[in-house]
Fold this protein.
Amino acid sequence: MRTRVAFTAFLDIVLVAMVFSLFLIIKQEPFSNSFHKYFNSFCIFIAIWLLVSLVSNKFNSERKTDLDHIVRQVIVANILVTGISTTIMYLTRVDYYSRMVVFGTIASVTLIELLWAIVGYFIKNATREPGISEKEGKKYGKKTFKDVVLSPMSRRYKKLLEQRESAILVEIDQQAFDYIFSHADIESAETLIVSTTSRFNIDTQLKRDFKSIVNLKRINDIRYLNKFFESANAKLPLGGLFIDFVETKDLRKQRILNKYPVIINYIAYLIDFIVKRLFPKFALTKGIYFFLTRGQNRVLTKAETFGRLYSCGFEVISEQLLNKHLFFVARKVSAPLFPENPTYGPFVTLERVGYRGKTIKVLKLRTMHPYAEYLQEYIYKNGGLEEGGKFKSDFRISTAGKFLRIFWLDELPMLLNWIRGDMKIVGVRPLSRHYFSLYSKELQERRITYKPGLIPPFYVDNPKSLEEIMASEKKYLDQYDRHPFITDIRYFFVAVCNIMFKKYRSK
């Protein structure tokens, strides 16, 4: 630092001497005579200039933290020089000591110093990593100062951003990049970007939480998928975003059929269907499936993907089909539910509102994709209800499930609930908590005073909307209150006739 100050002082003295000489020439006196006459006075002037500049730290660039401070230092120091020089001139009353030379030199050098200092300030700050002031940075030490969030104008920061964007574009295409960029601030240190199938790379992050987590590997290759989602959930605050993508079952089928020639492609798809979709659903073949695949390249439906996300404390707020993959943005809304027995096999146990509001477990044949039971709110929010009170555009129902529902086969296992005493033959339909919440408060309170039934009033009145369904159930309960046995007998035979001859079906 001392060397820098000495060098700056030397340059400043040279500048003063040059400007002083220039004014002697302007004074139109022979330069040799003028310089000899002013030499002693010039030495005193230089000594004053140097002393005041050193005392005021004008030459110490390390102390210059902002532009105002720079200007103030130069002006104050040079005003002091002017005051001292004026006092000496007044006291000594030297006639040949020209005011034009002295004050002209001070004014000109002051202007040049200001321009010099200002230009130097901007050059220095253009190459330095701004973000907080250097003065504030010293409070935290040099390392912290360098590691503080950098200004977007920093060259180093821009270079890091370019490297990050280049790395992302190696994994995904430009369209996917733009989609991710529209939801997550990839320029922020609060956004974690990984390309991994292991939750280890999420759990071992030293930062406690992030505003967004972006994974650039498709979730089909993550073996312990729920655990991965749970790890992402743990690293996000409420409202934090998780972004990833999946090759859905339908996209996978399309890829396989387009990959091979006709006939061979359907044989390949059949083998893939047996190994990747049937084997994981049965206890005897599940081990074979994981031995062959190690959990890689698994088949996932949109319903299972979103259902797993919802069971792990997320809600899906955006989805888009890009480059034959479904990209999604999920927002953390709660801690994971940690389901003990997630439904995956051919039979499913569903929680329903039973007698006195208690939760009963209804056994049915699976007609929906795994984890679909967590998506009722999502389906309702995005599609509402269609005619008959079913959810509109319900992609949760599988192809086999549609067949089972047509012939009422999916509800046959509910006979076990009747044997256990949870349900009766005729009665209001057992509802999920979410669907139950759509009913009027009055009907909610009334219907839990009865056991739900295997055959609901729906198959008697064939209602078309939620309001008609509630009216149908209210009519049944009114008649049941007056004549319980007769009402159930009549509703039973009318419902059976409608199912057999009028083709009323549970869609």
About this structure: Residues 347-501 form one domain. The longest helix spans residues 99-127. Strands lie at 191-194, 212-215, 241-246, 314-322, 325-332, 347-353, 359-365, 424-426, 453-455. The first strand starts at residue 191 and ends at 194.
